[in-house]
Specification:
The chain has nine helices and 15 strands. By secondary structure, the chain is of the alpha/beta class. It has two domains: 154 residues, Medium-chain alcohol dehydrogenases, catalytic domain (Quinone Oxidoreductase, Chain A, domain 1); 150 residues, 3-Layer(aba) Sandwich (Rossmann fold), CATH 3.40.50.720. Bound molecules: NADP nicotinamide-adenine-dinucleotide phosphate (NAP).
Length: 337
């Protein structure tokens, strides 16, 4: 095989705020040779997740920060082009931990084979049938523990995770209210996904008043995707023994000096619980989770959106859409074969 050249986006310096092309430039380098037990995959899909912004910062996280000069870590789906392992063979399509790059060299033991002829678009394994759907499912059901008749409030509700959370909460018989950043997103979650109400947080004014109006019986479960002032307002609307499931704090990711929540004392006032989680906590149950999500999907009970952007060189501007809210659902980079 002639030498493969890899375009790779890497961390040149830690972003002070929104990542710039100076923070995350690219280089064209020879593809790393696979050691014993490793394989090279030619990436077809790259998942763009808000968490990646956290890994660019040198702070304690659930996995190590990306080191300076290392490629930007990401989940990928690709085709094996060379294998030094019995676990995967040339031509296999796999999902792996990879990076914002054309080729990834990684341990085959960490690669999950996907059936490209199953009729399920491969990109779905990064969205509704992948980490996104699993985050919504386990975060809501295991951490939020919704009961029929309760009120569930979700932020970033038209996003990849939030839109699934709201639909699962509806299936549990809950009153479901979503907060999102445009009229179009609010219409989508109420008119098409079945949320009971939506709050456009960019135009509603007083968050606390808007939540109280949309949740007349108070909030039993707050699924927090954003942190910041929306979390503070939601805390003021909690019911007794309510649960706050902290999934992510996207409003703070580009602002290291963002103030912390002021209203956590409401946990005392309402004997409420707050719990953070990462989807990796549930790795042993991923099979069960994918089965449940697939069942709902096939029964027409789950809808989802993917925004697929061609090509690798759009990876950084694509990633930034997560932070200005211009993404429509799960954001994925495609590198056509
Ligand atoms: N714990 C886990 O294992 C786990 C796994 C996956 C994701 N997450 C977290 O889940 C959250 C959603 O991730 P996702 O992949 O589904 O992304 P997403 O919701 O599809 O996209 C991010 C959305 O966040 C909203 N947003 C951005 N900045 C905001 C701000 N300052 N205030 C309020 N909303 C803002 C935007 O929607 P609007 O137009 O509505 O503003 C944007 O579309 C993130 O916090 C992420 O870190 C956690």
């Amino acid at each position: 095989m002639s030498e493969l050249i890899n375009r790779q986006y890497y961390l040149a310096k830690r972003p002070a705020s929104v990542p710039t092309p100076e923070d995350v430039p690219f280089r064209d380098v020879p593809v790393a040779k696979p050691a014993a037990g490793e394989a090279i995959i030619r990436n077809m899909y790259i998942s763009l997740d808000p968490a990646i912004r956290g890994w660019m910062s040198d702070v304690n996280n659930y996995i190590d920060p990306i080191a300076i000069n290392d490629p930007i870590r990401s989940s990928v789906i690709g085709r094996v082009v060379k294998s030094n392992s019995d676990l995967v063979a040339e031509g296999d399509v796999v999902m792996s931990l990879g990076a914002w790059e054309r080729y990834t060299t990684a341990p085959a033991a960490g690669m999950n084979k996907l059936d490209e002829n199953s009729g399920i678009p491969l990109s779905n394994f990064l969205s509704v049938l992948g980490p996104t759907g699993l985050t919504a499912l386990f975060g809501l059901m295991d951490v939020g523990k919704p009961k029929a008749g309760e009120t569930v409030l979700v932020s970033a509700a038209a996003g990849a995770v939030g839109s699934i959370v709201g639909q699962i909460a509806k299936m549990q018989g809950c009153h479901v209210v979503g907060m999102a950043g445009s009229e179009e997103k609010c219409r989508w979650i109420t008119d098409e996904l079945g949320f009971d109400a939506a709050i456009n947080y960019k135009t509603c004014g007083d968050y606390e008043a808007a939540i109280k109006a949309a949740c007349p019986n108070g909030v039993d479960v707050y699924f927090d995707n954003v942190g910041g002032d929306i979390l503070d307002a939601a805390l003021m609307c909690l019911n007794r023994f309510s649960r706050v499931a902290v999934c992510g704090w996207i409003s703070t990711y580009n602002d290291a000096d963002a103030p912390g929540p002021k209203n956590l004392w409401q946990l005392v006032a309402e004997s409420a619980t707050i719990q953070g989680f990462v989807v990796l906590d549930y790795v042993e149950r991923f099979g069960e989770g994918v089965g449940q999500l697939a069942e709902w999907l096939m029964a027409g009970k789950l809808q989802f959106k993917e925004e697929i952007i061609d090509d690798l060189d759009n990876v950084l501007p694509g990633f930034l859409k997560l932070f200005d809210g211009s993404n429509q659902g799960k954001l994925i980079i495609r590198i056509p074969e």
